[in-house]
Write a structure and sequence with these properties.
It is a single chain. α3 (113-123) crosses α4. Strands 1-6-5-2-3-4 form a six-stranded mixed beta sheet, sandwiched between helices. 44% of the residues lie in helices and 24% in strands. By secondary structure, it is an alpha/beta fold. 35% of the residues are buried. It has a single domain, classed as 2-Layer Sandwich (Nucleotidyltransferase, domain 5), CATH 3.30.420. The chain has helices at residues 52-65, 85-100, 113-123, 128-155; strands at 3-4, 18-24, 28-34, 41-48, 68-75, 104-109. The chain is built from four helices and six strands, in the order ββββαβαβαα.
């Protein structure tokens, strides 16, 4: 399935299918999972990044196990909205994954997501070690929750 815009995602999903949020880092991939009603994002796990083929196989297994209908991939744009190396890497990951999966893909702006999550963890007095353990999957949940909230707004405009 091609990469779609967020408003075009709901028609391609079946009832009860979840969304999987991805925060792609250089060394890890943070994952978050939505509930079956696609209202709440929950931090799920952090994968150590390997070769694309290995990462894709792990994601395909999770897609099958958790009835995932779409991936919400964080797009780390520069503050001026332009693509930097991280955004180019995220786009390449999405294009490569699109070639091996039928799962719908959406890319969403994730500027400052990791910074926001880190601030929250610092405010909660989490140790540096604990922050390192959870920041990637929490950033994925932050990205996914933003997408879920926008989908609700699109479905029910005021």
């Amino acid at each position: 399935m091609p990469i779609v815009a967020l408003p075009d995602l709901p028609p391609v999903l079946k009832q009860g299918q979840r969304l999987l949020g991805l925060d792609l880092g250089e060394k890890t991939i943070g994952l978050a999972l939505s509930d079956t009603t696609r209202n709440i994002a929950t931090p799920f796990q952090t994968l150590a990044r390997g070769r694309f083929k290995t990462d894709a196989a792990i994601l395909m297994k999770l897609i099958a196990e958790h009835s995932i209908g779409g991936l919400v991939i964080g797009l780390p744009l520069n503050m001026d909205g332009s693509d930097g190396p991280s955004a180019q890497s995220a786009r390449a990951f999405a294009r490569n994954f699109e070639a091996v999966s039928d799962c719908a893909l959406v890319m969403v702006d994730e500027r400052l997501s990791t910074a926001a999550v880190t601030r929250t963890l610092i405010d909660a007095d989490a140790s540096r070690r604990r922050r390192g353990e959870v920041v990637d999957k929490m950033a994925a949940a932050y990205i996914l929750q933003g997408a879920l909230d926008r989908l609700r707004t699109i479905a029910n405009p005021r």
